[in-house]
Amino acid sequence: MRCDLHVHSVASGMCSTPVLNRICRESYNDAAEVYKRLKKLGMAIVTITDHDSIDAAEVLRKHPDFFLSEEVTVRMPTGTEVHVGVYDIRERDHVEIQRRRNDFISLVMYLTERKLFFSVNHVFSGLTGRRDEHDFDWFASYVPALEARNGQMYAKANSDAANLAARFGKVAIAGSDSHAIAGVGLTHTEVPGARTVDEFFAGLMQGRGRLHGAHGGYAKLTADVFSIVNSLLHDKPWTLAISPLAVLVPIFTAGHWLNEIRFCRKWSAILEGSEKRTRQLWDVGPRADNFIPEDFSLGISLGSSLGPSLGTSA
Length: 314
What we know:
- This protein is α/β, with parallel strands linked by helices.
- It has helices at 31-40, 57-60, 91-100, 104-113, 133-142, 155-168, 197-205, 218-235, 249-272; strands at 2-3, 70-75, 81-86, 118-120, 145-150, 171-175, 187-190, 210-213.
- The longest helix is centred in the C-terminal third of the chain and has 24 residues, at 249-272.
């Protein structure tokens, strides 16, 4: 059974680039077209992981092989942000996830209680901004999976993510992370022998997942951005007036690609020389409302709820 575990549609909202975030979407992929392409490429089950949104479900819920997921923008205890894929959720889960997404600890408690499978995506990418070394300690302690092959990341970033997943004892997953229709389904996760969504994720937790497909590249990124620009021009014809600026796209993507390489090399070097350190839920400073860590007693083991990959032992 195969599934692209990281794919976007028009429901992912506006892009995060300053100025462009007022006029341009993250993706112009039509959800129905995404579904058709994924099935054509042999995906047995289909999901869409839009940014903090499940709106694509309205179009796809009629398909029995579709399951609901999202990519959540989560604030870490260090103040940084990461993207977390959360899979096979219900509408009520989405509401609670969005309520808790600015508090990693609160979100992890909920996902663990609900026994929902989740992963940290593109861990060696600077897409969400700065990273803190303690972020990786939290990943090691409480995240069951890491995205180890992303169809938009360059090969070294993916191989380092795979090595980190092995080092931390995490499930490794793969997805295209495609914001343009051409890349949808070209990177995916396979669980041999699985017949249902439940069996697919059970197989992942048992270590039976296999990663397949393409890595990212500068040419691929540039082509995807041109595709998004073309969709923007069709969506908002008045932007034709600024279309000559499209000649700058290769320069923009080159700068982005070089920054991704720099980010990956920096954090790979830092982690290579560090030891895996586990974090506890009380390893945070007092909040503004005079929260006292010593008064907080959880009384449950997160490691027991999603299997051994959530444990905090080295």
